[in-house]
Amino acid sequence: MEGISIISMLLTAVFALGCLYLVLMPLFKEESFLDHTRKSQSNGATKEALLTTLNEIEFEFKMDKLSESDYRQLKRQYESQVAKLMREEETPSQKAIDSDLMAEVEREIEASMQKRKKGDGK
């Protein structure tokens, strides 16, 4: 103990407590953990997980590990979730396609009207 001073022991203790604080602090912030998991799990990953679960349910049913009523209930539940995700994925892209298509159609109509005006003026 002669070689170790009280100051060095205190600094070591403060350093250890600081490290412990930095390691444990994220575990107590539930909101940041939940936000991170929500952001990291995209619709595509969720859809893939649901489809994998559907395959597993079917496999277990064929292996006689699930009753038919349980199989049908679980299958219906997961299929509705997959369908909901697919509708959510489809909606924004359909709107973008529809607006782009409408803009193109309007340009073509405008161009054909311009051609007719030029043709009638001759």
Automatic annotation (TrEMBL):
<keyword id="KW-0472">Membrane</keyword>
<feature type="transmembrane region" description="Helical">
    <location>
        <begin position="6"/>
        <end position="28"/>
    </location>
</feature>
<protein>
    <recommendedName>
        <fullName>C-type cytochrome biogenesis protein CcmI</fullName>
    </recommendedName>
</protein>
<keyword id="KW-0812">Transmembrane</keyword>
<keyword id="KW-1133">Transmembrane helix</keyword>
